[in-house]
Amino acid sequence: NKYRHDRFFWTSKVVPTNLLGFQEVEVKPASTPMAAMKGPEDVASVDVYTAKGLLSIGHRYLDVRTIEEFNKSHVENAMNIPFMLITEEGRVKNPEFLTQISSTLKKEDHLVVGCNSGGRALKACVDLLNEGFQHVTNMEGGYSSWVDSGLAGDKPSDELKVACKFRP
User: Fold this and answer.
1) Is the pLDDT of residue 53 over 90?
2) Which CATH number does the domain housing residue 87 bear?
3) What is the pLDDT of residue 58?
4) How many other β-carbons are positioned within 10 Å of the β-carbon of residue 63?
5) Which of 14, 20, 38, 86 falls 20 to 30 Å from 132 in CA-CA distance?
6) Based on the domain organization, do 143 and 85 belong to the same domain?
7) Given 48, 55, 101, 115, which residue is catalytic?
8) Parallel, antiparallel, or unpaired: how do β-strands 135-139 and 110-114 relate?
9) Known catalytic residue: 125?
């Protein structure tokens, strides 16, 4: 059973006392206050033009694509810390993502987070907010939108299309 109380979810365990019935035991608060947890709805998202403006005033661009995607092409001066890794089992969440971020960035840094199309970046933003990072912004549409908007510079379009894995 779950009971809502202020900012916490309280849970109770029901354990069998014998074959005929159950006995309710001590009620304890959940380890993490549910109201304190951030979700996708808590992430500020901006279009690529607004993201470019934020970068021009000193925000840092965090590219959470795989190293392979990043090495093909990326936003100028971007730093790459992959949210997902490619393994033999397929893509898996980088278990060191938050550790790598925390060793490189401060929780007060202003970040624009991008991936290829926006999905990984949004998930990364949620994790960053829950880790205590205060100024995290998702770039809607990711690097694909950056390219489509003509912000990728003068690289040949064929080269840029290869950098965007899901592009035709």
Assistant:
1) yes
2) 3.40.250.10
3) 97
4) 26
5) 86
6) yes
7) 115
8) parallel
9) no
For residue 109, the model assigns a pLDDT of 98
Do the strands 110-114 and 2-5 form a parallel or antiparallel pair, or are they unpaired?
A: unpaired
And the tokens for 4? 């809502």
Q: How far apart are the first and last CA of the chain?
A: 49
**Which of 80, 46, 39 lies closest to 60 in space, CA to CA?**
80
| 168 lies in some domain | no
Residue owning tokens 């950056």: 146
Token pair for residue 145?
A: 């939108």
Residues 9 and 77 both lie in one domain: no
Is the separation of the CB atoms in 160 and 137 below 8 Å? no
Phi, psi (rounded to 5 degrees) for 52: -60, -40
Quick check: 162 pLDDT over 70?
Answer: no
Residue type at position 38: K
**Could you tell me the residue range of the domain that residue 96 belongs to?**
38-163
- Give the burial class of 116: count Cβ atoms within 10 A of its Cβ; 0-12 exposed, 13-18 middle, 19 or more buried: buried
Q: What is the pTM of this model?
A: 0.74
Q: Cα(72)–Cα(145) distance, rounded to whole angstroms? A: 16
